[in-house]
Design goal:
- By secondary structure, this protein is mainly α.
- The protein has a domain of 156 residues: Orthogonal Bundle (Fumarate Reductase Iron-sulfur Protein, Chain B, domain 2), CATH 1.10.1060.10.
- It is 47% helix and 0% strand.
- It is built from eleven helices and no strands.
- Helix 4 runs antiparallel to helix 5, helix 4 packs across helix 7 and helix 5 packs across helix 7.
- The chain is globular, with a radius of gyration of 22 Å.
Length: 226
């Protein structure tokens, strides 16, 4: 019509399943409560911070975004996602249920899924998964242990036994893998499963995306006034 420019492309319809990945991140109002409690920012003023990283996940998780890899590479640099101390104070302070630490975990999962894993934090996360599928302990460190012997240090005589219930960890890993829910989608799947269990335990009184997902009521005084 006159006065309106032709659209560059047609509207892209995104499935609900894909939008679920960034449901919580979309609730962020950039109030800064998480930033004020961040231990990583206190120790490193150059750390990107929980609010910025949660907003970053809002874009990375959007199926319409065309700069996912570039964003993940930027967030994986020093002062980025792998420098989070995992204190979870940001999640305690967030008034909207964004759960910034969970958003950072999603970014890490997505970075590893895209092969952006040169940081020591990413390597540690990958080894943790490998360990949970094998023995649950550092059985491959036998060579290192033998080196300790030559320096007069005595490691355990034999590698530790297989961790208890390691079979359950393997089954869970195989389940997620067969459902092709790598990266952030796998984390969201776990959140939904946990919320469903809590919902049933509480008699159906819990928000479907976890406590705090939706705006909380305003605080009231003793007389009931907002």
């Amino acid at each position: 019509e006159p006065g309106y420019a032709e659209p560059v492309e047609k509207e892209r319809v995104v499935s609900q399943e894909r939008m679920d990945v960034i449901h919580k991140e979309s609730l962020c109002i950039m109030c800064g409560c998480c930033v004020s409690e961040c231990n990583s920012m206190e120790a490193d003023p150059d750390f990107l911070g929980p609010a910025a990283l949660a907003k970053g996940m809002r874009f990375v998780g959007d199926a319409r975004d065309e700069a996912t890899v570039e964003r993940l590479q930027e967030y994986s640099n020093p002062h980025g996602i792998w420098d989070c101390t995992r204190c979870y104070f940001c999640q305690e302070r967030c008034p909207k249920g964004v759960d910034p630490r969970d958003a950072i975990a999603k970014l890490g999962a997505e970075a590893v899924r895209h092969g952006i894993d040169s940081d020591m934090g990413a390597k540690h996360a990958k080894w943790f998964v490998t360990s949970s599928k094998t023995t649950g302990s550092s059985i491959k460190e036998v060579k290192f242990a033998m080196g300790l012997l030559t320096h007069g240090k005595v490691p355990p005589p034999v590698p530790p036994h297989v961790a208890k219930d390691v079979g359950e960890a393997r089954a869970l890993y195989d389940l997620v893998k067969t459902q092709e829910r790598a990266g952030a989608a796998g984390i969201v799947q776990g959140e939904k499963a946990l919320s469903r269990l809590e919902f049933e335990d509480d008699g159906g009184e819990r928000d479907p995306y976890g406590e705090g997902s939706f705006p909380k009521p305003l605080p009231v005084d003793r007389d009931g006034n907002e």
